[in-house]
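S.,

As promised, the iron/sulfur cluster run. Input:
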Amino acid sequence: MVDTDKRRLFRRKYVKPGNLPWLSEPQAFSQQCTRCGECASVCETNIITKGDGGFPAVDFAQGECTFCYKCAKSCPEKLFSPQSTKPWEQIATISNQCLAKQGVDCRVCEESCEPFAIQFKPQLGSVAQPTIELDACNGCGGCVASCPTKAITVNTIDIQNI
Ligand code: SF4
Ligand code: SF4
Ligand code: SF4
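Predicted complex:
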């Protein structure tokens, strides 16, 4: 006989929220989000896509978050914090796939960053190297799609490793 309680638990297992801005309780997201799709339909840059299990998830390969707050306003389940609070704790990081780190002159990402969080520092014996200014990066993801080698990802800040 099928244990329905166990099956329900399995269905409602924790799903990592797809980094939506202003999520008030990320841990409870998969219990409370009904997957209605409202947030995705109003997103002005169409970056909210269907992630794991059909739950909404931000995909920076599609574009950047403009912090318009439309997703939060549209949610019937009230899963989002007030607009006056910080939207998320995440920043961009650049991997070794970066062309500059391989000695090739490339500054494409610098131009895509409106808050000027990507700085290129001269390097002896090599091309200028990119660094992310932690205080300036707002995690908007605008740099992600610009990188020709997909070297940039936006990740939750690990406070312990800063
Ligand atoms: S704040 Fe605006 S641009 Fe950002 S994910 Fe929400 S709806 Fe999209
Ligand atoms: S609007 Fe709210 S309940 Fe609907 S899919 Fe988006 S986060 Fe989930
Ligand atoms: S995530 Fe946004 S603010 Fe941060 S480096 Fe990329 S473009 Fe700049």
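The longest helix spans residues 4-11. Residues 54 and 97 are 30 Å apart (CA to CA).

- D.
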